[in-house]
Amino acid sequence: MTRDDCLALDAQDPLAPLRAQFTIPPALIYLDGNSLGALPRATGARLRQVIDHEWGTDLIRSWNSAGWMELPRKVGDKIARLIGARPGEVIAADSTSVNLYKVLSAALLLQRANPGRRRIVSERSNFPTDLYIAESLARERGFDLVLAEAENIPALIDERLAVLMLTEVNYRSGALHDMAALALQARQAGALSVWDLAHSAGVLPLDLHAAQADFAIGCGYKYLNGGPGAPAFLWVHPRHLERMQHEDLWQPLAGWIGHAAPFEFTPHYVPAGGIARYQCGTPQILGLTALECGVDTVLAAEPFGGVPALRAKSLALTRLFARLVDECCADQGLSLVTPQDERRRGSQISLARDEGAYAIVQALIERGVIGDFRAPDVLRFGFAPLYTRFIDVWNAVEQLRQVLAGGFWREARFAERRAVT
Amino acid sequence: MTRDDCLALDAQDPLAPLRAQFTIPPALIYLDGNSLGALPRATGARLRQVIDHEWGTDLIRSWNSAGWMELPRKVGDKIARLIGARPGEVIAADSTSVNLYKVLSAALLLQRANPGRRRIVSERSNFPTDLYIAESLARERGFDLVLAEAENIPALIDERLAVLMLTEVNYRSGALHDMAALALQARQAGALSVWDLAHSAGVLPLDLHAAQADFAIGCGYKYLNGGPGAPAFLWVHPRHLERMQHEDLWQPLAGWIGHAAPFEFTPHYVPAGGIARYQCGTPQILGLTALECGVDTVLAAEPFGGVPALRAKSLALTRLFARLVDECCADQGLSLVTPQDERRRGSQISLARDEGAYAIVQALIERGVIGDFRAPDVLRFGFAPLYTRFIDVWNAVEQLRQVLAGGFWREARFAERRAVT
């Protein structure tokens, strides 16, 4: 596999035109779209319109005239197309952490009639915010949070399980759970399943209805390209939306935008019907606007085969990266963390190295190859198929080879650790 | 009082130059800054910089290099200067509703050692989201939410009170509580006080430390001019920040950004010290950027006398409005809802009318005078002293006079009610 082979792969790539939707600095090899998606070209102009015209000129009237009140559901409906949900089942609002609190709380409420089910089961290496929110709710509601390695999770799906809470793709390893199988097993065992799609939405074909999952949440600023700290999303299976019409089944973040009639300003909370009750405070219009532009970049792939085509390219990219690392960086102490089995792989490749993982990532960043480090020893590379090219993969591995072969990462300035999301 | 008198007041107004900070459509008389603050001129350019340079070019590196991680506290420190708080005591994050959930939950936790104190007392006409969040937490934690008219609240501050939760300025009436007196009374009675400063921050001199309040929250998109759905803010008195170092005193929204070491990715939650634990998910950078620009427009008043000068102008504006309504719209069925006593008045004037309040507001909007309607019978006019002129007051009352005298509001097209925040 040569550099020219990679250029040829790009020339043949039917998804290649989608990259033009983004502004990516020409000299940069950006393999961190799983942390912060790239900037869509449309976002700046659309935000200018919202700021100058909708806010600056129309002011308060835009809550009606510009559809601001509907934006959480409008953006939610677009995201629904990417995750196998139906219109009216998804909202975009708040953060992933806050949304997880809402849905996990709802799931625990639904299980309160089953006093034998006191367990929330999750993966020990799940993204920390998921574990922290679950830990908090477990304390508050008297449940036990049971953490296990991925391979031991099926054995924990039993009559004691209240809620199975998993992130489909592990943020650190890139390992992909079999959502359909686990959600089915949970359902057959009388438990509920809550899915974090942070590293899935936009890159993996998802079908929440086929999986019969119960709740899902996800992140707006990774593969959905919604911008730093973008609003997150939240899905609830309609069987629960109906069941939860019951007045007693509130969500704890009972803010006014989730009220059945917010503008009646009544003193008592009456939850809105449907997904609307999962809203809380006033919609964040600037963030939702940018998120909509980001989601549109993924929907733009529909004429090219949509998410399945993105998935095929993503696998081609990770396959190429793993192969080139194997060829060019052999005997450099790197090991593949991400599963070899592509059916078990998200849209990233994680490599582990006993020594210097942080410094190697820093040395790569200095050379214009942006990946990231995940404690304690992981070099993480994300492959956003909308804008990552095969030549980027080749160039990234070439830089990695040079950094390792030349020992450049040993320079002192690469040693200091700083916080990066 | 003539139109020329009003022009003369503007000519003499030392704060008049501050209006140039905003883009307000020339033909508009905007008396709704208490619902959505006007657009600062700086906001568009600053957001372009964040989008094009920080996000588009520097991408993930901006979490460090552009100070994104620090933005909630940086903006919080600026807001602290407006509310009598100290640096490090305020964060800007999430929505008002979500922040109220955090602090009210913390206040209830602090009172759990006092089983005799099971009451949360608030005002019956408090803003609904505050009541809903309190109702939700009261149910969850086994407290009683007791609602009363403002004048009956002091009598409810007794040994049964856990938390007094009030909005300093009533959204509907514009009536202003005596925060210092009520917070002191609550403290002396062994209770805690939680204050919503949504209609206070930026227009009322505030001194949370002098009042010895316990917790406060507030809105970013009203007098702080942070844009539609801007992040809200949250303050905690340092005595609780210290006390709550105790591992057991979590806030329920235990997201990763409130963790002591978010980037260690440890499986168990350890709350950060200080105000940082009141963060939850990833900071919303676009919203925080716009909020910072908005807060800067208020801080720009410091050389002109700061918030006390803004308060003096605000009172002059509401005084003028009430007087002109009295003179020009006598016998039109309007009554003043906002207290006559200026020490009890926020930065708005609310008028009630038995018939047609909604339609009158609509007719005024058509004539370029933007106020709003609050069910069931209130016409509400906000006076943001940073950009409202005395001539705006004169012109608004003249339009109100015409609408009432001519009966224009009776036209059918003004009758249909739509949702407006």
Topology of this structure?
Two copies of one chain form a homodimer.
Chain A: H1 3-12, E1 22-23, E2 29-30, E3 39-40, H2 41-57, H3 62-65, H4 71-83, E4 90-93, H5 96-110, E5 119-123, H6 128-141, E6 144-148, E7 161-167, H7 179-188, E8 192-196, H8 208-211, E9 215-218, E10 232-236, H9 238-243, H10 285-299, H11 306-328, E11 335-336, E12 348-352, H12 357-366, E13 369-370, E14 372-374, E15 378-382, H13 390-406
Parallel strand pairs in A: 2-13, 5-6, 5-7, 7-8, 8-9
Antiparallel strand pairs in A: 1-3, 4-10, 9-10, 11-12, 12-15, 14-15
Helix pairs in contact in A: 1-13, 2-10, 4-10, 5-6, 11-13
Give the overall shape of chain A.
globular
Order of helices and strands of chain A: HEEEHHHEHEHEEHEHEEHHHEEHEEEH
**CATH domain class of the largest domain in chain A:** Alpha Beta
Largest interface: A-B, 90 and 90 residues
Using only CA atoms, what is the Rg of chain A? 22 Å
Structure in words:
Two copies of one chain form a homodimer. Chain A has helices spanning 3-12, 41-57, 62-65, 71-83, 96-110, 128-141, 179-188, 208-211, 238-243, 285-299, 306-328, 357-366, 390-406, and strands spanning 22-23, 29-30, 39-40, 90-93, 119-123, 144-148, 161-167, 192-196, 215-218, 232-236, 335-336, 348-352, 369-370, 372-374, 378-382. The first copy, chain A, is α/β, with parallel strands linked by helices. Chain A has two domains: 3-30 and 305-414, Aspartate Aminotransferase, domain 1 (Alpha-Beta Complex), CATH 3.90.1150; 46-299, Aspartate Aminotransferase, domain 2. In chain A, strands 4-10-9-8-7-5-6 form a seven-stranded mixed sheet, sandwiched between helices. In chain A, strands 11-12-15-14 form a four-stranded antiparallel sheet. The first copy, chain A, has a two-stranded antiparallel ribbon with strand order 1-3. In chain A, helix 2 (41-57) runs antiparallel to helix 10, helix 4 runs parallel beside helix 10 and helix 11 (306-328) runs parallel beside helix 13 (390-406). The model of chain A has no long low-confidence stretch (mean pLDDT 95). At the A-B interface, helix 2, helix 3, helix 5, helix 6 and helix 10 of A face helix 2, helix 3, helix 5, helix 6 and helix 10 of B.
